[in-house]
Design goal:
mainly alpha, about 130 residues, about 75% helix, 5 helices
Length: about 130
């Protein structure tokens, strides 16, 4: 049960597009002066890293990690362990989504406070106003 050339191509294309998206979002965090654009880039980076974590645990011909039968022979367990998806990346991504949502709300709150105090969200102007 190997993968075909098309499936391999699509997996590699998905990996490269995830890495490109992460790279563009890192550029947005580092190079853009607007705090709003930095928050959006950070959100995109978190989402692309979450998808990358799911991609790490992906298997092409896989089954859910649930034993439906109580057959405890060694051949069945070996086959199950070879074809079952690893549930750990999925659990970590669910946790990361909740934490990312809380961090995004906190950053939006900080951006609102910065705008209220300084009247701008441009980090260069804020640096000049602080002295």
């Amino acid at each position: 049960m190997g993968t075909s050339l098309l499936e391999t191509f699509l997996l590699v294309l998905t990996l490269y597009s995830l890495l490109a998206t992460a790279g563009v979002s890192i550029y947005g965090i580092v190079a853009r002066p607007s705090i709003t654009k930095k928050i959006i880039s950070l959100t995109i980076l978190g989402d692309s890293l979450n998808v990358l974590a799911i991609f790490v645990g992906f298997r092409v011909f896989s089954v859910p990690p649930v034993l439906l039968e109580h057959d405890t022979n060694s051949a069945g367990l070996i086959e199950f362990s070879r074809t079952a998806v690893d549930p750990l990346p999925q659990a970590l991504v669910l946790t990361a989504i909740v934490i990312g949502l809380a961090v995004n709300f906190f950053l939006i709150f900080l951006a609102l406070q910065i705008y209220r105090l300084y009247g701008t969200l441009d980090s260069r102007k804020i640096r000049e106003l602080r002295g």
